[in-house]
Amino acid sequence: MFDVAIIGGGMVGSAIGFGCAERGARVAVLDEGDVALRAARGNFGLVWSQSKGDGMPAYAAWTRRSVALWPALAERASALAGRDVQYRAVGGLTFCLDEGEFAARSQFVQRMHNQGQEGLRMLDRRELAELMPGCPLGPEVRGASFQPADGHVDPLTLLRGLQAGMRGAGGTHLPGAAVQAVEPVAGGYRILREDGSEVAARRIVIAAGVKTTPLGKMIGLDVPVRPVRGQNIVTERLAPILPLPASAIRQTGDGTVQIGVTSEDDGSFEAATTTAALARMAARALRVLPVLGQARMVRSWAALRPMTPDGFPAYAESATHPGCFVATCHSGVTLAAVHAGPLAEAILTGALPDHARDLHPDRFLGMTHVSSH
Amino acid sequence: MFRRTEPTDCTIVWEGRELPARAGESLAAALLAAGITSFRETPVTGAARGPLCLMGACFDCLVQVAGTQNMQACLVPVTPGLVAGIQHGARSFEEEAA
Amino acid sequence: MSVADEWTAGQEATAPVAESVDLLVLGAGPAGMAAATEARAHGMRVLVLDENGAPGGQVHRAVEARLAKGAVEARLAKGAVEARLAKGAVEARLAKGAVSDDQDKDGAKLAAAFRASGAQYRPNATLWAVEPGGKVFWSEGGAARTIQAERLILAAGATERPLPIPGWTLPGVMSVGAAQIALKTAGLVPEGNVWLAGQGPLLWLYAVQALAKGGRIAGIIDLSPPGGFARARPYLMRALKAPEYLWRGLVWQRQVKRAVQVTPARELRAEGEGRLERILVDGVAHAADLLLLHDGVVPNTQVTRAIAGVTHGWDPVQRCWRPGLDVWGNTAVAGVMVAGDSGGIGGARAAALSGRIAALEAARALGRITTDERDARSGPLRLLRDRQLAPRPFLDAMFPPLPEAAIPDETILCRCEEVTAGRVRQAVGLGCLGANQTKAFTRAGMGPCQGRICGPAVHGVIAAARGVEGGEVEPFRTRFPTKPLTLGELAALAG
């Protein structure tokens, strides 16, 4: 019997699995096959606090705590992945392309400031040019919000590092089959998988992204999560052109420029790209950096991110199935450091941290779908 | 390596050097005919590379053509006086503008 | 002027593109040319998008230019200064038997009929998206365009299976197919320390063509697994339904072996400082300045794999993925058809026949002919195609793809991102079951070629490392745009 079985091998499940294994627990991470609807593969790679937690102080604090823990996680994940995860806390931007956007963003920054976010401020065009000398910003760029603590990372190398770390600490990775049922047994639970295999564990964590809702029901938790499609574009490798990451455009450590991500909330579980959406994303990116009009895109892809009714994460232990937890969010990269640290610790000790009370999915009872995050 | 069986009718400039060529053939073919196999240095490790497929699929024949970088030499037709050079690593818009 | 007249009037590449079309054909190789010609015979409005600059595909590449050049030379010899790039000249040359090989004859006939068919032909046009409902996007002359197509026949042909050996990324190592393109389009013949290595019909064909043009080859390294004939013998009787295939293959080999040393070998390496300098054949060094590799061809499924709903199945004999098709070439998605080698390797003649058969089915689907007419017209074509396909099992057994398990760890598989076989095997050790998680963990397949070159090799190495059949390993998922285009082109579609 495993100490902890984690259902879901994406960014959230892998971080929790790594954290539990590192603390000496016998861990199994259960995952689907090669083409699972994994948000981890569609992640934009931002380690980001500036837009998180408006109206939900618990989430804002949880995010800030993760950002603070990120440098240590990055160092370990790089060593475990055998390659630099390219974490760069160089500060992060949200570009404003006209007066209207600038005014709206300024109001938002003020609101976040009032809720305790430090460091976040608006930069006008001149300050932006001073921050990024030589960056060929388009004439429409009016300014940006700037959070010096924000940064970016290569999310795929991070995922590799977390999984390698989980295995290296004695954890077991069981990919290739979906979970069909969870049953209580003496001293824990038995998980039945579609390939006929069974996994027994004292504790269970459901970290299954867009599949959280049906799995949550198996442990007596009602967690409404719907898929929101995010499309991404990546260009050919370019010499350095954009030194700071921004909310929809960043230059990766490999030199490619990543443009994203759409937020398509149509309830569809299809992860196809659409030309119309890609064209709109490209058009906005060219208003920020017109020179990119000459850049060749080499790939596009889409992934489904799990979204709760209020857009904030959901963490809970089941009342009916003690020792069974759920953890879901759409910011698996930013929160990877708290998932691998304090959350893993809490799951092993059986008591979720204080913030989690505010992030319990009970808050969705009677709530209709509201999209904000 | 390769020998031409048909006469050349113009010249192109590769890395500042004049090479004989045939208008209309691909730039990659003209370079190969002149004994040149190294077209670029990769952005990953800086290793030298030349064409593999000559049909537009492999992206190993990337060169600079008339100031534009990352051009597939197998898809660029030779025109008299064409100026081309080695692609060094990642494409640079700064260099293209210079 | 009727709609149809308006349509057929525009033959120039610069002609405007209509908003819709009855049939869009991708590719102007034998399958695409034949499909377009047949469809035009039933009055359909046909648009053909071709990446190349002229009809022919890879197998008949530059066939018109080579024939025209031959015609010009013949006329010059007779003192006639004027020469026309006309159908008449092509036919005259065919009649005189002046064309060097059967392939050129087939290609010239197909191209002439295609040119005369009234199909709108757009060369240098790269299709990059097919969206539900038949909306097709392509790039041409640096601009993105779109059209609505009632039916699609995708005839994207084949690509060479990669043959990754240590050192194959050195300048001076190319594919046999590449050398054949250099020969056909630029008249380049091999000379000096030029080696051919690998296996498969194209390797021998190229050697014949190169030698006929006065080229010289230092040697051929035959990497085909031993026992080929013993494996193929059960399929011999069937193959003899089309004996010219086997006969031609034997003639090629005999011709080549008279002029070139052929060495069977198991291991091959390429070495050199910054470029190819020598090859190691089972440990024995030979000076080399050009090494040409070949390990057969596989269907080009880059576009079909990106279309939601089109199924693909693993072909355990040819060890490749091919789209699921009925006898007409229909995929699982209504209106989307596949013809020629991109539906399964059958060779140029089978491709042309399947193009015509698919066009007849498209004509039926659009109400241009009845089901009975389709069946009557396609009956003889299907018999001919069966005959053309008869030798395939024999050839497949003779030349099974080289085993990926034998690829040394240090060999680069993904040339764009410089990912080795060892790195891919390491990812399998981390729990990667298929090509997509492997891509995420290693960057293999993430570069500008979008996995076109390394796809079969990465897939095969994963299957071998897991110890399962290829059909159990997901291949790279492709997505539109399936060819790099500039962000400027893409953004212009935002309106």
Automatic annotation (TrEMBL), chain A:
Name of protein: FAD-binding oxidoreductase
Keywords: Oxidoreductase
Entry-linked Pfam families: DAO (PF01266)
Annotated TM spans: none
Superkingdom classification of source: Bacteria
Sequence ranges assigned to domain FAD dependent oxidoreductase in this UniProt record: 3-345
Origin species: Falsiroseomonas frigidaquae
InterPro entries named among the record's database cross-references: FAD-dep_OxRdtase, FAD/NAD-bd_sf
TrEMBL record, chain B:
Record's keyword terms, sorted: Oxidoreductase
Entry-linked Pfam families: Fer2_4
InterPro entries: 2Fe-2S-bd_N, 2Fe-2S_ferredoxin-like_sf
Name of the protein in its database record: (2Fe-2S)-binding protein
UniProtKB/TrEMBL annotation, chain C:
Taxonomy, superkingdom: Bacteria
Domain BFD-like [2Fe-2S]-binding residues, every copy: 412-463
Keywords attached to this entry: Oxidoreductase
Membrane-crossing segments per the record: none
Limits of the FAD/NAD(P)-binding domain: 22-168
PANTHER family documented for this protein: ANAEROBIC GLYCEROL-3-PHOSPHATE DEHYDROGENASE SUBUNIT B (PTHR42949)
Protein name: FAD-dependent oxidoreductase
Taxonomic source organism: Falsiroseomonas frigidaquae
Organism lineage string: Bacteria, Pseudomonadati, Pseudomonadota, Alphaproteobacteria, Acetobacterales
